[in-house]
């Protein structure tokens, strides 16, 4: 009987914490139902900023090779191909749009922007973004690190120094936000029962 009373007290205390009320020993979760802590908000903000920046570069590249001098150099250093094999404008703009959508999804996961659609679908989207970025990051490290394929050395250098580590970092930030979203959803489901 005593364990049941303790268990009920713990459930009640966790429920109060989920609604933002002060609970001894529990960190503030944002002061609102489903609120998130500062670490989740920071991860979401940094991750989304990285995705928005990458998306902006992809949106600019069909029109300018910035920050490089020419489209030939852009093709070699950023894509690892010759200029005639650069991805098409619609494909490049599609990647820009997907990065923008992914950035917004991460922002909404961190409760920094309103969510669009059901929470379960948003969590699935977060895990998908994390998985795609992790695959790109790990694949790039393997391919460039083991010198697989015919990419130029300038591309391999930047893939190992920036592109792949950035993808892995963004994947980790997104997975952190996704994990905390799942944890919050489970906590709410547990207190509703």
Question: Oligomeric status of the shown chains?
Answer: single chain
How much strand? Answer: under 5%
Percentage of helical residues? over 70%
Low-confidence stretches: 1-33
What is the averaged pLDDT score? Answer: 83
The best one-word shape is elongated
What does the model show?
This protein is an all-alpha fold. It has one domain. It contains 6 helices and no strands. Helix 2 (38-60) packs antiparallel against helix 4.
Write a concise keyword list for the protein shown above.
disordered N terminus
Summarize the structure.
Helix content is 71%, strand content 0%.
Write the layout of secondary structure elements.
Blueprint: H1 2-18, H2 38-60, H3 71-79, H4 89-109, H5 119-145, H6 153-192
């Amino acid at each position: 009987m005593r364990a049941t009373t303790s268990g009920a007290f713990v459930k009640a205390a966790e429920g109060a914490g989920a609604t933002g009320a002060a609970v001894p020993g529990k960190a503030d979760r944002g002061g609102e139902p489903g609120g998130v802590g500062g670490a989740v908000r920071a991860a979401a903000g940094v991750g989304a900023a990285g995705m928005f920046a990458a998306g902006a570069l992809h949106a600019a590249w069909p029109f300018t090779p910035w920050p490089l001098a020419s489209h030939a150099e852009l093709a070699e250093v950023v894509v690892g191909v010759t200029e005639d094999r650069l991805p098409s404008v619609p494909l490049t703009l599609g990647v820009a749009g997907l990065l923008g959508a992914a950035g917004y999804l991460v922002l909404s996961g961190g409760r920094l922007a309103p969510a669009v659609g059901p929470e379960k679908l948003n969590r699935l989207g977060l895990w998908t973004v994390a998985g795609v970025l992790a695959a790109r990051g790990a694949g790039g490290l393997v391919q460039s690190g083991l010198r697989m394929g015919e990419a130029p050395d300038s591309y391999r250098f930047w893939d190992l120094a920036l592109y792949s580590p950035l993808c892995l970092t963004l994947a980790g930030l997104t997975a952190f936000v996704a994990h905390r979203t799942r944890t919050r959803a489970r906590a709410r489901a547990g207190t509703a029962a």
